[in-house]
DNA sequence: CTGGGGAAGGGGCCC
DNA sequence: AGGGCCCCTTCCCCA
């Protein structure tokens, strides 16, 4: 089992704790270490995502390629801005930095949530992003969340992270308890589908096929990354030298080690 | 140094 | 409420 994800370089700050260690240890680790700012900055969606004419670092073709175009990251706009809300729900740096949400609109939009009525919010949202499909539900969540009195914080007993819903907390706790164990190698996972994906590494099953070539993948996200290799347009651009890359991780690597600022 | 594949983690949404 | 799935993201290795 040579995969490197089990043996990480000690010099690289770990983004996530080793939960399997955690399970039988005295829980000394903390999740409060500051999030890698370089990554955070690179991950922050620029206003240009909403304005394709501007630039850098920009998702050049999100709008062209993503058939599943999602609405803006409303979840990320939840009431962290309200002082009371911050007290109740402030998440760790890790959480605020690694969301898988699509780019959230640039500030100052978020700052208006604590003082804006849900109805005007909705009007603004529809005006800014016509065609958004899931707004009603999201706004319902916002309107509930914007009232600090109506919210409770659910804390993880293992790491003290706070969640707005019991369901979210339960989901998180699974990452500590790792209830899904691989019958082949004994590796444990937080969710059944993670285990399912892992089992494919044993069986060799690759249900996700590339429509452009003969390659197949065990993981849909990996197929998605692969599909970018068939495109002429590279998605991520370095703000300093304007080079483009197919993956954000390549851009990060480039920025951290190679980019001298000049065009290449 | 870059490009790409493999594996895994987490939050959110839908049913 | 819980399971399943989706999507995004990260990390590591190798060519």
Automatic annotation (TrEMBL):
Alphabetical list of SUPFAM superfamilies matching this protein: beta-beta-alpha zinc fingers
GO molecular function: DNA-binding transcription repressor activity, RNA polymerase II-specific; E-box binding; kinase binding; zinc ion binding
Domain C2H2-type, first and last residues per copy: 154-177, 180-207, 208-235, 236-264
Any single GO CC term annotated in Swiss-Prot or TrEMBL for this entry: cytosol
Biased composition annotated in UniProt, kind: Polar residues: 79-91
Compartments where located: Nucleus
Chain positions covered by the region annotation Disordered: 1-21, 79-116
Pfam family for this entry, one: zf-C2H2
One GO term of the biological process aspect: cartilage morphogenesis
Entry annotated with the keyword Repeat: yes
Transmembrane helix in keyword set: no
Residue intervals passing through the bilayer: none
Keywords: DNA-binding, Metal-binding, Nucleus, Repeat, Zinc, Zinc-finger
Entries under PANTHER family matching the protein: C2H2-TYPE DOMAIN-CONTAINING PROTEIN, KRUEPPEL-LIKE TRANSCRIPTION FACTOR
Family listed: Belongs to the snail C2H2-type zinc-finger protein family.
Name recorded for this polypeptide: Snail family transcriptional repressor 1
Organism listed in the record: Sciurus vulgaris (Eurasian red squirrel)
Gene behind this protein: SNAI1
């Amino acid at each position: 089992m040579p995969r490197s994800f089990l043996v990480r370089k000690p010099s690289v700050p770990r983004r996530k704790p080793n939960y399997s260690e955690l399970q039988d240890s005295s829980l000394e680790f903390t999740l409060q270490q500051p999030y890698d700012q370089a990554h955070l900055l690179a991950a922050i969606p620029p206003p240009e995502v909403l304005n394709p004419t501007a630039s850098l670092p920009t998702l050049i073709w999100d709008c062209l390629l993503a058939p599943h175009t999602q609405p803006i990251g409303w979840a990320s706009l939840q009431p962290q801005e309200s002082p009371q809300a911050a007290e109740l729900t402030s998440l760790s740096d890790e959480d605020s930095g690694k969301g898988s949400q699509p780019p959230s609109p640039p500030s100052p939009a978020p700052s208006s949530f604590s003082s804006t009525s849900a109805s005007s919010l909705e009007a603004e949202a529809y005006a800014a992003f016509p065609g958004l499909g899931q707004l009603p539900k999201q706004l319902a969540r916002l309107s509930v969340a914007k009232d600090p009195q109506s919210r409770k914080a659910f804390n993880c007993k293992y790491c003290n992270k706070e969640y707005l819903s019991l369901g979210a907390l339960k989901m998180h706790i699974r990452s500590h308890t790792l209830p899904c164990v691989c019958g082949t190698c004994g590796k444990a996972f937080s969710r059944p589908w993670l285990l399912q994906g892992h089992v494919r590494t044993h069986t060799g099953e690759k249900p996700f096929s590339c429509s452009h070539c003969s390659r197949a993948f065990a993981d849909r996200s990996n197929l998605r990354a692969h599909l970018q290799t068939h495109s002429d347009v590279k998605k991520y651009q370095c703000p300093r030298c304007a080079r483009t890359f197919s993956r954000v991780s390549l851009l990060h690597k480039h920025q951290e080690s190679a980019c001298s600022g000049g065009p290449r």
